[in-house]
Amino acid sequence: MLDYETLKLIWWVLVGALLLGFAIMDGHDMGVGTLLPFAGKTDVERRIMINTVGPHWDGNQVWFITAGGAIFAAWPLVYATAFSGFYWAMLAVLWALFFRPVGFDYRSKIESPVWRKTWDWGLFVGGFVPPVIFGVAFGNLLQGVPFHFDNDLRSFYTGTFWALLNPFALLTGLVSSAMITAHGANYLMIRTEGDVYRRVRSASLIFGTLTLVLFAAAGVWLKDIPGFVITSAIDPNALPNPLDKTVVMQAGAWMQNYSLYPATQLVPTIGFAGGLLALIAAKFHKPLIAFVGTSLSMLGIIGTAGVSLFPFIMPSSSDPRSSLTVWDSVSSQLTLGLMLGATVIFLPLIIVYTSWAYKKMSGKVTAAFIHANDKSAY
Amino acid sequence: MISTELVDLSRLQFAVTALYHFLFVPLTLGMTFMLVIMESTYVITGQQIYKDMTRFWGKLFGINFALGVTTGLTMEFQFGTNWAYYSHYVGDIFGAPLAIEGLMAFFLESTFIGLFFFGWDKLSKGEHLLVTILTAIGSNLSALWILIANGWMQDPIGAEFSYTTMRMEMTNFWEVMLNPTAQAKFVHTVSAGYVTASLFVLGISSWYLLKGRDIEFARRSFRVAAAFGFASSLSVIVLGDESGYTLSESQQTKLAAMEAMWHTEPAPAGFNLIAIPNEATQSNDYELQIPYVMGIIGTRSFTKEIPGIAEIKEKNRTRIQSGILAVTAMEALRRDKNDDDAKTQFEAHKADLGYGLLLKKYTQDVAQATPAMVQQAVDSTVPRVAPMFWSFRVMVVLGFAFALLFTLSLYYTLRDTFLKQRWLLRWAVLMIPTPWIAAEFGWFVAEYGRQPWTIYGVLPTHLSASSLSVESLYGSLSGFVLFYTGLLIIEMYLMVKFARKGPGSLGTGRYYADQTAK
Questions:
Q1: Residue A188's pLDDT is what?
Q2: What is the pLDDT of residue B337?
């Protein structure tokens, strides 16, 4: 069996990978939802957009559910503390997501324009709100969150929902939203033609540019945000107990990893390079490359948040020693090892059959397709 | 300190969201397999009508499935949002099956369900059938892992408490996975799902037959449902939770409560057909008993005794007293992990740690618990009898009613005279909602019967909740109720609309609704 330290590090990478999988896969559906009321002017155009993700949104959503389950299993304290602390934010995500399954499945079952337009806005909410909140959540993690543990490791969150909506967090929320919208636009470019294609290509260029500008702005701002540092000796193989350490806030601490391990500078670089690649590809009508570009860009952007925070996952601003890190929020060595085994077996399988599903459903969704499948298509 | 009001509201929210979710799960579990049967028949015989059946019943299935997904999202996240201490305390064990469920089952089900609906023209016949089969396997595997997690809540084996990390940790994954309680729950739950789906198809088909429309379509659907439902309704009874009764303490407590057995009776105990349980006197005001039956069902023997409520409580009193020593030793070890006396004391009493924690509801310092508090804790270890007693009976009576309905349906199917048995068809229509009632009561018996624990004998419900404000809970609970009720109304509207329209809703031009539309 792998030693505890290695497993803890692997799980940091794996949770990141699941979140990235979520962003790439569910992200493009959410981008479609965000663009739906704007890029689709007629009912048929909107149905074209919805049907590009019709067969896939449900499978894609499982990335979100599995990431949640994996955080529960691998980082139980993070699952417990973050989800209960960010209570209303989590509920907002959940309630926004409620509109998707029913929106997709019910929208076109009834012909009334009011019914359909209502669900279109539901799908917009389901696509727009979650990425904004996830971005806001990362913005708050980077500033530290007001919570502490008592001696029994019961967590107490002492902030409010409104305090989450501070300027820096709103900026990271916009980064996330712009990134997901550009990604969805690139996916739509692959699967549509004509007017919808033209509109989503403009959206890809606008939101792609916006992502890069906002990401750069957030990076500059981050330099001024005090980070956190563990000041006691770290034993990465120790049994996890977050109260066993001392932590201080320190200016510039979030930049430390980049100078300590210069290779990590590659991560934000990929964020920018991927975004640029996507912009150039969209410009020259190469949607598949544009989609790869925004996927890489998301790897870089999410990775940047992870690397900046490392080894912290959820720093506490009100009681720094309660901060959760990759060393002390984890489950037991046995569970981490077991979960790694399950992931190694199933994740490649999932990627194989998901690819098969996309391959089988590939091709442009056209107005002719919608008319021919009026009763069965979304 | 966590208030009782907060805990009660958190429980209520969990119950509401779980019961809503469980309105949509059983149909999904069973319908996917019925679709496999119909589509296999289509692929083997090449008859178009079986394809139409797969598509039409699939359409109704889809309307239900959308809400299953919606309400399922909540389930995955509310352990963290509302049961944070629970999540921390048992996440090491409980989180694993949930994550594996995602990886192994939910991805499979959700990826292929999309192809089921959208792949008719893009996949070969064989490929499409494979997709349907994988969807069915995925949804049922999903239930397996969820019930492994739930089974562990009822019967927490393969794990141990660690005072360093202040939580339960997995010691043996195979024990958790092959937990007999979990396996018994799994077969019982999926069988109940198959019954639900069979009755759904049977009932709606009967309605078409009574109306004299889409006869060929409805006849074939009726037959499939009668056969599948007959097998399922027998297995739901035989494989009922009965098989797990004597295995674990949680089952013993539930059994005593749902049978209103206040005292241990000489073996083999009688079965209370009807009783009026009285909490105040801890006895039944009235009972109608069938001798021997309970002892035989519960222990599969004539000589083993089934413990009654009073005896269970007395045993728990000893455990609570031992648990006080476990809690004080654990707290000493949290202050100084090298305290050898505390270590010895903890090792001697750690099996009763959870029972000591029960007292935390009444006092922070359990060493100072008064005899009155101990008595309160003792009394809390058995759930209220009347709700358990009656819920169980509703479920069982319905279970036998399903078996009767399907036996008759199969009998007349085999004689090929069911079209003439209008009384049977009417019965089938009227009984459409009843499997859901049985399932909801079954959930109640299993989970209310687990109280006062979230993890039986390990973690009291009172300690499990998140430290949220009562206002937050009122807000979120109302939000869930409003949201879910609204969605349920929409779902029912669509379900009824499309069920009434029948296979004509496929727009193939071959069915009743196609004719009337012209």
A1: 97
A2: 87
Instruction: Of A59-63, A343-347, B17-21, B336-340, give the lowest mean pLDDT range.
Output: B336-340
CA distance A174 to A138: 11
Task: Please report residues of B whose CB lies closer than 8 A to that of A68.
Answer: 76-77, 80
For residue range B222-240, what is the model confidence (pLDDT) as tens digits? Answer: 999 999 999 999 888 877 7
Hey, what are A5's tokens? 């330290």
Contact A70, B102 (CB under 8 A): yes
Contact A90 B80 (CB under 8 A): yes
Residues A248-257, mean pLDDT to the nearest whole number = 94
Identify whether B503 is part of a domain. Answer: no
Nearest residue to A337 (alpha-carbon basis) of A7, A46, A19: A7
The C-alpha atoms of residue B322 and residue B386 are separated, in whole angstroms, by: 30
Per the CB < 8 Å rule, is B84 touching A54?
Answer: no
Chain B residues 41-100 within an 8 A CB cutoff of chain A: 55, 59, 62-63, 65-67, 69-70, 72-74, 76-77, 79-82, 84-88, 91-96, 98-100
Burial class, B517, CB count within 10 angstroms (exposed 0-12 / middle 13-18 / buried 19+): exposed
CB contacts, 8 Å: B114 with chain A: 54-59, 357, 361
Using the Cβ of B467 and the Cβ atoms of chain A, whether some distance falls under 8 Å is answered with yes
Please tell me whether residue B188 adopts helix, strand or coil conformation.
helix
Question: Range of B432's domain?
Answer: 180-246+387-448
| Structure tokens given for A97 | 């997501």
Phi, psi for residue B515 in degrees, rounded to 5:
-70, -45
Residues 6+ apart with CB under 8 A from B367: B324, B327, B328
Is the Cβ pair B95, A79 closer than 8 Å? yes
ipTM of the complex model: 0.94
Of chain A residues 45-84, which have a CB less than 8 A from chain B?
A: 51, 54-59, 61-62, 65-66, 68-70, 72-74, 76-77, 79-84
Residue B130 has pLDDT above 60, yes or no: yes
Instruction: Count other Cβ atoms within 10 Å, centred on residue A368.
Output: 10
Q: Does residue B300 form part of some domain?
A: no
Whether B493 is covered by a domain: the verdict is no
Alpha helices by DSSP H, listed for B339-469, are 340-349, 353-357, 371-380, 385-414, 422-430, 434-448, 461-464
Q: Which of A57, A72, A153 sits opposite B79 (nearest CB)?
A: A72
Q: Which residues of A touch B79 (CB under 8 A)?
A: 72, 79
Identify the band that residue B1 occupies on the pLDDT scale cut at 50, 70 and 90: low
In this prediction, residue B241 carries a pLDDT of 56
Average pLDDT over residues B346-352: 95
Binned at pLDDT 50, 70 and 90, residue B491 comes out as very high
Between positions 167 and 206 of B, the ones with CB within 8 A of A are 167, 169-171, 173
What average pLDDT score do residues B380-397 get?
A: 93
Provide the domain count of chain B: 1
Distance from CA of A262 to the nearest CA of B (A): 34
- Give the model confidence (pLDDT) of B368-387 as tens digits: 999 999 999 999 999 999 99
Report the pLDDT averaged over residues A221-242. 94
Task: Show the CA angle centred on residue A55, arms to residues B487 and B120, nearest 5°.
Answer: 110
Q: Using the beta-carbon criterion (under 8 Å), do A80 and B490 form an inter-chain contact?
A: no
Question: In this structure, is residue B136 part of a structural domain?
Answer: no
A141: nearest Cα among A310, A19, A331: A310
B411 Cβ partners below 8 Å, 6+ apart? none
